[in-house]
Amino acid sequence: MARTGLLEIYEGIATPENEGMGTPLFAVQYVPKQTCYFIGKDTSGQPCLLVETKENGKHKLPPIHLESLDAQFELGCQITDPEGQIREGVFTVVRFRSLDLETIRYFLSVCQIIMVHLGDKPSRRALATAVRRLASIFKNIHKTPIRSLNGLFGELFVIWRSQYPARAVAAWRIEDTSRFDFAMGDIRLEVKSCAGRVRAHTFAYDQCNPPPRTHAVVASLLVERIPGGISLGDLINSIETQLAGVEPLALKFHEVIASTLGADLSSAMQVTFDARLTENSLQFFDLREIPALRGSLPHRVTNVHFTVDLSGLAPLSQESLIKRDPHFRELIPQLPTE
Asked: Within a 10 A sphere around the Cβ of 61, how many other Cβ atoms?
């Protein structure tokens, strides 16, 4: 299904003035080429995804109530259609509790993926599963960010420039507590970004003492924020386009993004980076060979981290990585050629 400009649809809807007689009222616009999906506004102007429900179960599904989002299944509603006609129907309604344009844009982008994934006239079960997945993506967007913006940009850059972005996303960490940013078969890839000109990064002890029989590598990047560079939002949109046709991975991608950025999601989208600097600074190093603490830690000593200056160390070539494990070809970005 082609992009339909859900944000433009939302912005073109007039906010309804008041609720119906005990029935929720939404002003809606049809999503082009769809028969059951609507983008709407409630009486507060908050964006909603409405999916008209024809299949009813014996038991009504319980609603979802989050700080950022609520969802109600098989809800009797009144809608004002594009012609100004009011009609009643039964809908699954997902209401996003924000009036911030950037977070609305992000919400509608994920709604687009959900719609593509479900197709027209989804089953009751498939719709409920998709709505729960949508809720899981936005459950953390009011929480404190769990990773620096520079660090997230580095990881996204690796996905963006990898030979197979879908496989890179499949290998991407699910939780922030994961030991490595990417894991694929015997490959372990950690991405480190630094804002200065000294290639100094902080490592966890476990990262420099990886599991036996694994190929553990760090991708070291220099990151700089500049006006007129590539914005984080544009980078995310570009990767989303690369994931077209693999909607389950696109949903995982957005789940990691939202949980990482948390309350900074809106402001982060406008931050711009020097992609050319990052591309030309990319180097790979063997995590078993960089200076680090090795061997067993003293009893009761845990959570050890240390900073290592990689400047002056000989980086690994892309060819040598692929010789170690051919799957590196699918994951790592192509190094720029002279």
From this structure: 17
